[in-house]
Structures are given as structure tokens and as C-alpha cells.
Specification:
2 copies of one chain form a homodimer. Chain A is an alpha/beta fold. Chain A contains 10 helices and 11 strands. In chain A, strand 1, helix 3 and strand 2 form a beta-alpha-beta unit.
């Protein structure tokens, strides 16, 4: 055992103590001789010994909070992992439904080489982000070297606008997935879509599934399963209406109607981004 | 249609526009003659016309953010619903993993009659809360009249310490469920446990399932299904280790070991609370 003290905290946080044990990471410790190869997903997770993993999670005004907190609950529970909550300044950003989120690092201070670059979704703020040169050039730069370039929900359209999904299979919120080709991505079925080192999730709650999966990619299946147990992730929805196919055409049409204006604004932003990228 | 303007926001938020339509709430509109009966769950959801639903969600230092943000993403998407994020002061509280959360109302300003009283979990802060007379008397007061008294994760132990679960079936995080009898509750199986107007959820991610269910209780199945589709809640975990039974004895023992110190502290807090309530 490397560290036997209990953090005396909540299940998820206290996992760190457990996860730091040699026992939990026996296999991964053996793999430290495999060098990290930026741009290529690793089949074997690196050791929790050594420099911490660097995770950069963008937050922004008008984002959807659950898109971020779902993955964060997993990533921040991984051993020897630094989660940087990134924005232009350190002022709180106002997410959807008036939830204020606090960055803990500016874009300028973000490490150059990240293990994970992550962008959450959220229609109004996301549309602005797709047209924000400062954010797009930051993402293009860090994304060019990050080990994993990732998103949940409409965050994939921001990655796309930054030129990071050209020729990659990707997904987004089901209502916005059709916009992906405008920024050069290939829309694909699936709650989580992996193509080389790009991992994109579907809408909002897909962030929990993404958090579980990226934990496994970073620290191995055992660590991910411990986090799943700590977060008691054994979903049992009372209904089965989480996709258009399951919800049926009437419910879907009703929701699409109320989403139409946002869809059109995001389409226009994607067209502009695509033109700047020389795609459309 | 009562309101056809699109909010032009994210899927979840934009739902409000859709949900305000007469079409969506035909059945519920017809039920407005049924008076609300505090303390008794209603089979038929009230109309979105009339005074807004009053939802009081407690936040506190050392809470687990996902416990709160999961249900919040559903509750804040319901039509004609006010979500009050409550704490002693309006200063931000520091949740687990250094996430700062902002209250938008003090306990003193909270409406006397709530449709939903909700408490999230999180071991270190939760233990302090179980011994905090100001918070416990607030919960006992609002909980005595609230239409639904609810929690996710170890929030149920706070409800219990406030005397709100005496003789009620309830659940908690799987690692802390055994403590419920100390505050007079009857531990029950199930990701969500409903007993009369008490609705308690399991650990952390159970808050998503709780959010979906309470949406249906408040505004009907149709509204809940629209939110499920908007939040794309169609879970597909990469692993199946979300409960001790599924994770198996080895993984569970490993995690329990790291949670033992927190469990003991929470047990002592439950014993003290139980004594004050005349239970143990």
C-alpha cells in the first residue's frame, strides 16, 4: 500500500485513498514503461505514481451544469489527477438556470500538455463559444497535443468549430447531431463515440457514461469500477424516453418544436465556423 | 398554447417553453380542482397555471455536487417552478472537490410552504449538518408541511437527524444505509424509496433517477418524459459495478475499507441525533 490514510470524506472523494493502493493499480504500475503517445489513446492506463494527470475542463457562461458535473464527479475522484476548471478569467460564470460555476485556472495558465481536454454543452453559451476566437484558438492549441480531446452534448460543436473534429466520427445532443458535418465531423450513432483520441458524448446525462469511460481509459477498468460503485451508478430510470427512438415521434416532435430556434442559431454558427475552416 | 416563444436556450431549459403548452398538460389542467394535500403524495400532478411550485434545495459546505445538480437539472426544467438554492447565508459554499456552489436564498427567507424539500449528501459536510441545530430546526419546520420531503445519498441521514424519517422506509448511499435505523428510519431496498410523501434516493447518481421521478410526481409523466428526452437520459454504463451486489465482494471490501472512517463518524453523529430524538 502506498497510502493507507482515509480521506474521511464522501464515498467518491474517499475513493482516492483506495485508488492509490498498489493492489488497485498493480497492472498499471507495470505499464509505466509504455511511453505516453500524444494523439493516440492508450490501451493500458498509466501509473498513478509520477506526475499527476492534467485534466482541463472548460466552463463558460450559458453552459449546462450537469454536462460538466457528471464527468467532473468521476475525473476528480481519480488518483493523482489534477482537474483544472478553465475560463478566460477567474470570475464565476453563470451557467444555465442561474447556477454559478467557478473556474480555478485561466486559459492562459492552463498547462500546455493535457491528458484530457473537455468541453461541455449548452445552447446559448455554446453558440457564442463557436464564434469566440480566443476560446477556439486555445482549444485548437491544447487539442493538438492533448492525449484525449473530449466533449459532452453540444460541446462537440465547439470542438468542431476549433477544427478538432475534421474527419473524426463524433456525436452530440441528439437534436444537434445533424450539425456536425458543417464543422467537418462524421455523425455517428452511440451514447459515447470514440474515434482515435476523440471521445464525444451525447446530450447532458451522457456525461456520466463518459466520466466512467474516460476514468477507465486514464486509470484502468478497476479504478473506473471503484468510482462507479462509489457514485452508486446503477441507473434505473422510471421511464424509457431518453432518445427520440424510445420517446416516439409525437414527444420528439413536441420537443423539437421548442428547440427549433436554438437549433437554427447553432446551425448558422456552425456554417460560419465551417467556412472559416474551409469545410463548407 | 399559453406561451409559444422559444427560450432559445439549451434543450433542458428550452423545455419550459414546450412544457407550458396546454397540449402537454391537458390532463393536469383538468385536475386543478383537486386541492393540494400537504403530507400526502398526489397521484395527479397540479396544473402549471397558477402559483409556481416552490422547490427548496439545501446546499452546504462539504456537500457532493452531483447529488444536487442531478435533480436540479430536472426540477429547474419544470414549467412554472421556482427552485430555491438554500443556505444560511448567500455566500458561496465550497462543495467536495473544491466546487463552489451559490445559494440564491437564505434559510430565513425560504417560503414556509414548499412543494419539495430536498437535501443532498456528502460525508464530511453531512456529518456536521446532522449536528447543526439551525439547519435541523429549519428542516423539521419546512418538512412538517412540505408536500414532498426528499433526499439523495446521505441527505437521508440529515432528514433523519431532523426527525423527519421516524417510521418511514428510506434509503441512502449503500455504504451508509445501515445507519438509518439510528434516526428512526426503516432501511429499504431500491434506488429510490417512496413511503407516503418521503422520497429518498441512493448514492450520488441516484439523483438523476430521483429528478426524473419527482418531475413526474409534480407535473405528470408527460412532462417528466420530455425532460428525460431533453436531458437524453438513456444510460449505458460501460461497466456494471454500481452496487455492492454487482461489483462483487472484493471490490466492495476495498471501497468499504477506505470509507470506514467516514462511516464511523457518521454513525456517531446518527447515534447522537437518535438520542436527541428519543430513538436510541
Amino acid at each position: 500500500m502506498l497510502n493507507r490514510r482515509s480521506f474521511g470524506k464522501h464515498a467518491g472523494a474517499a475513493l482516492a485513498a483506495s485508488l492509490l493502493s498498489k493492489q488497485a493499480f498493480g497492472q498499471q504500475v507495470a505499464s509505466t514503461t509504455t511511453p505516453a503517445n500524444p494523439g493516440t489513446p492508450q490501451a493500458v492506463a498509466p501509473s498513478p505514481i509520477g506526475p499527476p494527470l492534467q485534466v482541463g475542463m472548460l466552463i463558460y457562461p450559458g453552459m449546462w451544469t450537469l454536462d460538466y458535473i457528471g464527468p467532473q464527479a468521476f475525473l476528480a475522484g481519480l488518483p493523482n489527477t489534477k482537474v483544472h476548471t478553465l475560463w478566460k478569467t477567474l470570475e464565476p460564470v453563470v451557467a444555465i438556470q442561474d447556477v454559478k460555476m467557478h473556474p480555478n485556472m485561466t486559459l492562459a495558465d492552463c498547462p500546455k500538455d493535457l491528458d484530457v481536454l473537455f468541453v461541455p454543452g449548452g445552447t446559448p453559451g455554446t453558440i457564442l463559444l463557436m464564434q469566440d476566437p480566443e476560446v477556439l484558438s486555445f482549444l485548437a492549441d491544447r487539442g493538438s497535443r492533448a492525449r484525449y480531446v473530449t466533449s459532452v452534448c453540444t460541446g462537440s460543436l465547439v470542438l468542431g468549430a476549433a477544427g478538432l473534429l475534421k474527419g473524426y466520427k463524433a456525436t452530440s445532443h441528439w437534436n444537434k447531431r445533424d450539425l456536425l458535418p458543417l464543422v467537418g465531423a462524421i455523425p455517428a450513432e452511440g451514447r459515447i463515440v470514440e474515434d482515435r483520441n476523440r471521445i464525444t458524448g451525447g446530450g447532458v446525462t451522457a456525461g456520466i457514461d463518459f466520466g466512467l469511460l474516460i476514468s477507465a481509459r486514464l486509470r484502468g477498468d478497476h479504478a473506473a469500477k471503484l468510482l462507479q460503485l462509489g457514485n452508486e451508478y446503477d441507473p434505473h430510470p422510471a421511464f424509457d424516453s431518453g432518445t427520440p427512438a424510445k420517446a416516439g415521434p409525437e414527444l420528439t416532435a413536441e420537443l423539437e418544436k421548442s428547440l427549433a430556434a436554438g437549433h437554427e442559431k447553432m446551425r448558422l454558427a456552425a456554417v460560419v465556423a465551417g467556412k472559416e475552416l474551409g469545410i463548407t
